[in-house]
Amino acid sequence: MNLDNPQNWKKVFFPVWIGQAFSLLGSELVQFSLIWYLTKKTGSASVLATASFVALLPRVFLAPIAGALVDRWNRQRVMIIADGLIALATFLLAGTFLLGIEKIWHIYLIMFIRALGSGFHWPAMQASTSLLIPKSQLARISGMNQTLRGAMGIAAPLIAALLLEVVPIPGVLAIDVITAIIAILPLLFVSIPQINQERDGYLGVVQVWLDIKDGFKFLLGWKGMLYLSLAATILNFLLNPGFTFLPLLVTSYFEKGVIELSMIESAFSAGMIIGGLVLSTWGGFKRNMHTILLGVIGLAVGTGLLAMAPSNKFYLAVVGVALAGFMNPIANGPIFAIMQTYVEPEMQGRVFSLLESMVSAMMPISMAIAAPVTEWVGIRGWLAFGAIGCFIIGIGGFFVPSLINIEDGRDLIVSK
After folding, report:
1. Cβ distance 143 to 101 under 8 Å?
2. Distance separating alpha carbons of residues 150 and 180, to the nearest angstrom
3. In angstroms, rounded to a whole number, what is the distance separating the alpha carbons of residues 384 and 244?
4. How far apart are CA 293 and CA 289, in angstroms?
5. 3 — phi, psi (to 5°)?
6. Residues with Cβ < 8 Å from 378, sequence gap 6 or more?
7. Which of 208, 226, 244 has its CA nearest to residue 358?
8. Are 71 and 213 in contact (CB under 8 A)?
9. Do 199 and 72 form a contact (C-beta atoms < 8 A)?
10. CA-CA distances (angstroms) from residue 311 to 250, 314, 315, 317, 322?
11. H-state helical runs in 137-257
12. Positive or negative, the Cα torsion across 283, 285, 290, 296?
C-alpha cells in the first residue's frame, strides 16, 4: 500500500478509526453505568476503590506481556479478538442482570476482562496506526484522538445518564455489544500491513520474557525515549491526585455544589476537545518535542491558576482547568507521534505497553502518597506542587540534549 497517496491510507484508516470511536463510546457508557450501579447498590467507597483497582491491574502488570505478544501476533486479528472478547464479557454480564442473578464480583470480573481486552487492543491499534498513515500525519491523528476522548468525556456520561432513565442497565450493556460489532466490521474488510510474521508460532514463557526484556533494552538504549517515558510517568504522578480531588476542592474550598462540579469537569473536556482540534489542524512545531514541552508548560500554568484561585473567584478555577484541558492534547499527542515515527514497527507493541504500565503504576502510588500529604498541605498545596513540577520539567526539557534532540537520536537505539 502506497501511504504517500492520501486516498489510499484514508480509505483504510478512517473506517477503522470510526469503528473504534463507536467502540470507545460503548466502553464509556458501560464504565459510567457500572460505576453508577455500584454507587447506588452499595454506597461504599471501598467497593468503588476495588472496582478501580481491578480495572487497573491489567494495565500495570499485564501490559508488558500484552505488548510482547502484540509484536509477535497479527495485530489486526488481535484487535478483532480483543473487541470480541470485550463484547462477549459484556453480553454475559447483561445476561446476569436479565436473570436477576448479578453479584458485585460479577462486575469486578467483567471489568477485569474488559481491561484485559483493552490491554491488548490499545497497543495493537497504536502500532497499526504507524503502518497505516503517513508519518507526516501522525501528530494530526493524535490530535484527533485527543479530541475524540475529550468529546467522550462530555457526551458519554450525559448519554449514559439519559439512557439509564429510560432503559434498564442490560439495555445500556447491549449498546456496548452493538458498538463492538461496529468496530469489528471494518477490520474484517480492510488490510492492515503486518510486520515480522515469521515470528508467529509457539511462544514459551522464556521467549515472552526475552521479548519484554528487549523492550526494556530498547528504552534504556535510547536515552531520549527513556527520558520522555520517565517525564510522562512523573507528570502523571504530579497531576493525577490533584485533579482526582477536584470534587473535594469544589465543595470544601469553593463551597460550591454539584452544578459547579459539573462545570469544572466539563471545562476540562471542552478544553481537551479544542486543544485536540488545534493540534489536528496545526500539526505542532516541526520538532514534536517543542510542542510537547509547550504543552507541559501550559499544563503548569493551568494547574497553577487552579491552585491559586481565591475561594470567591471560582471562575478562575474553571479557566485554569479549561487551560489544562486544552494543553493536555498539546503535551500528549506528539508523544505518540514520536513513538509511532521513530520506534521500529516490530517493537512498538512492547514500547507502548511499557509506557502504559509505567504511567498506570503511578496512579495508585501517587494517590497513596497524596492522600496523607493533602491532609497536611491541602489540595491546593498539592496542585501548587504539581504545577511547579510541571514547570520545571517543561523548561528543563529544553536543556536536556537527549530529550530535545530525540527526533535526531535514532542512531542511539541499541541492536536487539
Report:
1. no
2. 20
3. 15
4. 6
5. -75, -15
6. 253
7. 226
8. no
9. yes
10. 9, 6, 10, 9, 18
11. 138-166, 169-189, 205-221, 223-244, 246-248
12. negative
Grid cell digits, residue 84: 470480541
- Helix H or strand E segment including 1: none
Q: Which residues of the chain have pLDDT under 50?
A: 1-5, 197-201, 411-416
Burial bucket for residue 315 (CB in 10 Å: 0-12, 13-18, 19+): exposed
Please tell me the total number of residues recorded for the chain in this structure.
Answer: 416
Residue-wise pLDDT for 234-252, tens only, equals 998 999 888 878 878 888 8
Distance CA 303, CA 44 (A): 30
Nearest Cα to 264, choosing from 330, 327, 323, 333?
Answer: 323
- C-alpha–C-alpha distance, residues 275 and 298, integer Å: 11
Per-residue pLDDT, 198: 46
Task: Count the helix, strand and coil residues of the chain and give each as a percent rounded to the nearest 5.
Answer: 85, 0, 15
d(CA 96, CA 119): 25
Amino acid, res. 45: A
- Name the residue with cell 474553571: 318
How far apart are the C-alpha atoms of 171 and 162, rounded to whole Å? Answer: 12
- Alpha helices (H) along 283-313: 288-308
Label residues 64-81 b or e (16+ Cβ within 10 Å = b).
Answer: bbbbbbbbbbebbebbbb
The residues near 247 (Cβ < 8 Å, ≥ 6 apart) are 261
Map grid coordinates 520539567 to a residue.
393
CA–CA separation, 215 vs 236, rounded Å? 21
Which three cell numbers mark 196? 515480522
pLDDT at 4: 46
Instruction: Kindly state the cell numbers that stand for 48.
Output: 468503588
pLDDT (0 to 100) of residue 2: 43
Q: Which helix (H) or strand (E) holds 57?
A: helix 45-57
Q: How many CB atoms lie within 10 A of CB 255?
A: 11
Distance separating alpha carbons of residues 322 and 145, to the nearest angstrom: 18
* Cell of residue 390, nine digits: 510541571
Residue type, 173: L
- Asked if 28 contacts 12 with a C-beta cutoff of 8 angstroms, the reply is no
